[in-house]
Fold these 2 entries.
Entry 1:
Amino acid sequence: MESLENKIKRLEKTIFKQERELLHSRQMATLGTMASSLSHEIIQPLQILLATAQNCQRDIQREQVDTDIISDDLEQIVKTTKRIVHIVNRLHDLSHDSQPLLESINVNTTIENALMMFREQLKSHSISIEKHFTVPLPPIKADQVQLEQVFINLISNARDALEGCFDNGCITISTQTQNGEIQIRFEDNGVGIAPAQLPHILEPFVTTKKKGVGLGLYISQEIIHSYGGTITVNSQPNKGTAFFIKFPLATKE
Amino acid sequence: MSTGKILLVDDEPEIVKQFKRALKSEGYHVETAASGEEGWEKYQSSYFNVVITDWRMGKMNGLELARKIDTQHPVTKVIIITAFGKEFEETIDPHHYHAFDYLKKPVEMDNLLNKVKEAVQRQDGVVAALEDWVETHSDEAARPIMATLSQQREKQLWSAKDILEEIKGNTERGKQEYKKIIQLTIDLLTRGKIQ
């Protein structure tokens, strides 16, 4: 018969293993929904790179080289390459299985990084972004990749909620400090969530969309809770949806 | 002989800059638009040999723009640039509109220029004939003549040069005259009579 002590040890090992698997599948879920939109994000800068480089080649072939123009071209190539590097790095982080690394994180920077993953899609859907960031913003203790995942999920949902609203689709994001916490408001003026679904929207496998599994908000909530934070949501059909997130400030150690 | 007038429609300014650069280096006159709506507006006021448009662009996407262009004559060749072949093929209605060609991103400059060259060569017959006439017989083309161009036998005063300008300006008169010229051709072929 297994001793109680051994049983506890065995169960602890199992829980630990399952936690790691859960973390991994959370990341995979986010990655999966992003895969198709990411290819579009990457193809645009690749087109800029190809066209710029080939134009330089043509200039050289036709012996019409203007060093000022070539200089601008090379600057554009470097800038655009860095855009792609950013996206690829994020892809790597999201797909890499690793233990969360807690660091001092600036929420404004995290939000900007997440927005960079959606630049082309937001543009092609005519969605504007309004940022009301408090600067400087005190840091919170979190894992950079996980925190970015939260905002990636929110932006992704907002983009879907604004599908078809080409006129004045807008995502408004504001950050501020109050009562020893960082408060974030993330709002869109899209289709909104039906009153019947609103109380359940943060639960797993709840979705209003045809595609996707309904884990995005649940994962975001889990991540936020793991840092001692909270998330609440308000919504009105055809008016929009707003998320309120709070995080305790990183205490000086 | 003009090399051609191109309308370039894309919401990414860096792409517009590079495509325009390549086209201009080949001697084309290039105008640009940053959205489907702006493209349509510009198209209304001038005839273009070719329209190059991105597919995915906000309110009026490239395909919608192409369909609208297709409703006007003379018909312009439209090249649609798409990101993903399969996704695009599933969207277009196989029975309705067909662009002159589809190019997949990222587009190579040589490829783009070859397609544009092809499209420009397949110029609208009426416009090409008028252009040729105006170029080779400039005095005659500028002289207004009395001519009856329709069954209704209304006489009108027009010069080839004026008509060409109206057609290229996409004006109401230009559109009407274009239709009459087409009808005239049909009449000649079917009745062999001209009053």
Entry 2:
Amino acid sequence: MGMIEAILLTVITAATPLVIASLGELVTERAGVLNLGVEGMMIMGAAIAFAATQMTGSPYVGVVAGIAGGALFSLLFGFLTLTLVANQVATGLALTILGLGVSGQIGEPYAGMSGVKLQPIAIPLLADIPFLGPLLFRQDLIFYLSIMLVIGINWFLFSSRAGLKLRAIGDNHASAHALGIHVIRTRYLAVMFGGACAGLAGAQLSLVYTPQWVETMSAGRGWIALALVVFASWRPWRVLAGGYLFGAVSISQLHAQAFGIGIPPQFLSSLPYVATVVVLILISHNRRVTLINTPASLGKPFVPDR
Amino acid sequence: MSDVEASGDGPLLAVRSLTKLFGSFTACNAIDLDIRPGEIHALLGENGAGKSTLVKMLFGVLAPTSGEILWKGEPVRIASPAAARRIGIGMVFQHFSLFEALTVAENIALSLPPGISLSKVAEEASRLSRLYGLPLDPNAHVADLSVGERQRIEIVRALLQNPELIILDEPTSVLTPQEADRLFETLAKLKAEGRSVLYISHRLEEVQRICDRATVLRHGKVTGACDPRKETPASLARMMVGSDVAAVSAAGTGARGDVLLEARHLTVPARSPFAVALKDVCLKVRAGEVLAIAGVAGNGQSELFDALSGEYPVSDPAMVSIRGRPAGNLGISARRLIGAGFVPEERHGHAAVPALPLSDNLVLARNQSDRKTFLGGGALGIIRQAVVRLASKRIAETMDVRKSGDNPAAGSLSGGNLQKFIVGRELDRQPSVLVVNQPTWGVDAGAASRIRQALVDLARSGSAVLVISQDLDEIFEVATEIAVISEGRLSDTYPAQSLTREKIGLLMGGMHGETDESAEVAHAHRA
């Protein structure tokens, strides 16, 4: 395997959790709910996936457990903000803090253990394509899922009736309610989908990226995922592009530091953030497109008047 | 579209002692109503009379506290709008329940039963819109459409369900007279097909023109059922209001003084993609004049108000002058200091903070202009509560503001009373220039006439008054001069006596070729 191939592989591994967590949050926000607890749900997914893998020996059980863990944890957020109409920003922040704490408890017995890595699955024929094959078709399950999620969510939001209803709720929940769309039920599902995606992203961290448990190993990726959603104007393909750009610049700056280029490391470490912000601002310069895509009722609580 | 059948002679929809309580407040009190097949039935009443609550119950948005709804003689429980649509009731809301970020076709698809593809919806929508004379581009985003176009979406959306009863809530409040005429033609077509229409309005003239029967509501009760064509506007108004409404005595052609408010080639780019740019607006208001600016909502009225009031100052100071001083770059408080007063539209959240008491709302508006009176402690600016409360009490008395308690939260007042307060808050200072945006929008007739009289009186006492309004009745009541705003351009100013409704209507839409259909479709495509 060549040097470039190796670098590109690490880029994919670094970008995948960002893309998955962002996509989940994108769906949640398109329904009008702002869940700032992505970081917390992600780290919960990582801990639960690692623990389940250690208990059963199967990383696939770990993946499922990570997804379920993230979804269940987000249900807490849903109950507080949708049923009890608590403030979404405060509840999301609390969810992150709670997730970081509880995941530490769950993962504590497994700290320092070597994990089981999710093995790549080669796709017949495609995997033999030179260069592209090993990069794209000799990957683990979670990578394939991330690409299917981009395609699937894009189709769901813009071509399916259920997706249309979800966007309608995010645009104007009072009108959606007047049309007989189940606002709260749809928002619960959207929140849980966001939680499931964050959990899956967490599972990728503890089963693929660095197959072990380290406390707070999500290292701020949940926050980056949140920012990506906004900068990508709530569009799935832009989330993919933003996630990969961020991954690519983070990995290259690591290599640049390793080569000892005479640039201060602090500057290099900030590069991924700067580059992502600049590029996403450039692609979202059309304010009309941005406005059309921004969920107008984002973060606003809904109480049906009965 | 012709499976609408009359079920004998019985009413299509009958309502028996329908009641809705909100806490201890009775919004609808034992209402009886019959709607016959193939009639246009008017539901008349003041704001707050319970019309909206009643139709929300008919459409399944609100659940009745008690009473019965009969559909073709059978008792029905309408649990949701979807249930209402299933039995054959369609509704066009006053505040459109449209999704701005979605396209016309997507908006329509949302209210249809599942299993119909989006392209089918678009096709059917354009077919219906042609059939009923309501031109629409199915692929346009709602955010880019005019209010009249948005209403067409609502109507087409309701028609797609092939309803036997269509409820229209204040449909003409947002239309030009010409657009309203076109709507009446559509309604006549629906009636000819045997459909019934429940037409909610407080405009007596159009009710008399198009409706077969009318039911009048006041304070949540039915106060009369009649044939509107056999009544006079005065007798209908009496049923609505319960007493005769004081007529406003106009400012007339008294003495005119100096130009106190002037805009010179006021040009402001659109602040957001959905806002309107002001293009070369010129206007002059002299002492003793009431200049009314007519226009359909969303043609630059808010932007004009923002520029005149200084809510968004403009870069060139000379573009706006107040009492001869260039003021374009001044903020709202600085403009108040040189003798201007401003009443924005939207009582709740813009003109007043609903959660704060009246006295605090008074200080918020006048903390600079009345700094010496209201604030103490020098630079600290401590509010002199006693003085402020006294002033707000004075305003409430002058304007006949009815409230519970001495200094209640602004949000607890009814719309009319709060509006009287926020207009009174400015009048109390005797400003030499007053700019008011939609002074009586959604206000009951009594309060509206009180506010209009106050504006006229202010002009008579030698101030310049500029009123931005969509209500032509109001404009003819108060104005000495009239100009029309359309797509951010202002027409010439005409003396009020020289204008008719028709002429204003032409100025509203006609200036930019929006009156014929092809131009309108082109307009829809422009996005």
